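Example record for the data management plan.
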Amino acid sequence: MILLFIINLLSALNFSLSKYALAYIDPVLFFIVRTVTGGALCALYYYYMSTEKAIMTKYLVGMLVMIGALNVYAANLLQLQSLTTIPSSRACLLFNTAPFIVVVLNYFLLGTKISYMKIMGLVCGWIGLLITVGGDFAVSQTICAGDWFILAAALATSISALIMERALTTHPISTAYFNAFIFLCGGSFAVMYPGLSLSTCISIKSMSFYILLVIALVMGTTITTALLYTHLLRKYSAAFVLFTGFTAPLFAALFDWSFFGHTVAYTFPISLLCIAIGLYLFYKADS
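Corresponding structural encoding:
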């Protein structure tokens, strides 16, 4: 269970550090740097250190490509785009609606029944979501594009989590090889991104050592989180692993206050409480 606590701490730190780094580097370039570097490091570890052998089939390769496209490419790029317009604590909170999305996907795609308690949990969760998103809407009559980006990222993560859970439980594949494949696959998709041009690479030349250190920390937390996430999906269901993410917004709010001096809106703890109650009801129904 301690690993579930650590992975959410790292996830929140990733949101906050990425928010800071995006002031100095193009989101797409930043994404390519961290995914390709992460994939290369995982591949090197697998080649020189791992004793596990990867047995690849066409079915497994297809699942890994889908995971790379959804979990690495789409989810991360949407997350970075959202961080250019909304605070990291808000993005982290909205992103952690993923457990509710997984329950709905399980119902419609896999035919899994939803109990009364799970329905109550979903209602509480969506109330928390509406409080967060609706707060700004009540003032400006608009919902920020960053909100839609991060919700789309949560959807992509939820779909990929179900595919990842199946891939890891039905195929004996090395954790390092698994992450190397999906990181490099996602990075390859990003290289073909139409919004990327050579001019974006110039921004990295004006960075100080401190900014480069922040980017290195983001890559470190990204790789560590991915490895832990893969490890935990071998033990727990995707819904349960995502369920524990309700602690991440707390850490993200703390980091926002520490790093950026942001004042947490009064609606934030109310939203978090609603989502925590919803997740607790979902957990009790699932256990």
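Summary line stored alongside the record: The chain is about 75% helix and 0% strand.
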